[in-house]
Amino acid sequence: MSTDIESFTRAPFTHDDATRDVFRKGTGPAVVVMTEIPGITPFVIAFADRLVAEGFTVFLPHLFGPPGKALSPLYAAGQIARVCISKELSVLAARASSPITDWLRALCRHAHAQCGGPGVGAIGMCMTGNFALSLMVDPSVMAPVLSQPSLPFGVSRGHRAGIHVSDADLAVVKERCAAGIRVLGMRFTHDILCPGERFETLRRELGPAFEGIEIDSGPNNQWQIPRTAHSVVTHDFVDQDGHPTKLARERVIAFFHERLRG
Predict the structure, then answer these.
(1) Which comes out higher in pLDDT, residue 153 or 216?
(2) pTM surpassing 0.70?
(3) CA-to-CA distance for 243 and 223, rounded, in angstroms?
């Protein structure tokens, strides 16, 4: 597993007076990888490198934490606390998009201009999971993937069913789905951070345009996946033939190939 962030080029990207570093690597159609809490961990880097090996250019924006730092409970808790008070992420908004998605849309347009092709892919994970849906408002985004989308926090029944996108953005998303864009989502069945009600909402709102992968993490499941499993393609990924997480990652890669290679 490659975990070397230094193998990526690092450059600032500015939109509307907001500047963040973006790590880039690879050739081919662009995929924007929006990292989960606590940040660009070695597991996230390994996933990005897998996309590079498949012939994609990865754009990895620095959203949380020190790049390359390994996951630990204390590190994760600290970053969650920072996110909860951030003005860029609306952690309790069931029917509103986080403000940072405007900057991310600009990054998608930039990536498309740099790499060409039909458009760009975008995968969000955990707290950025729903962002891929909001990014669909921009026509450059052709392959959105929601991995364990965890916003809004499930503090009520309405929040558990919420998909963290404004009504105006959702209307555009549904128009694009009607025009042929597809959305891929993934979650573990017993993940309390990404409840099943959220996928029910996505199926109801997007219809056949939404492809949901739900991996059994219940008691006595065949692969002994723990009930606490959360991160499908990173921290809880198992590189074993036939394992549901490996099949899910293969589906993500196939989805990007299908949608981004014309």
Answers:
(1) 216
(2) yes
(3) 7
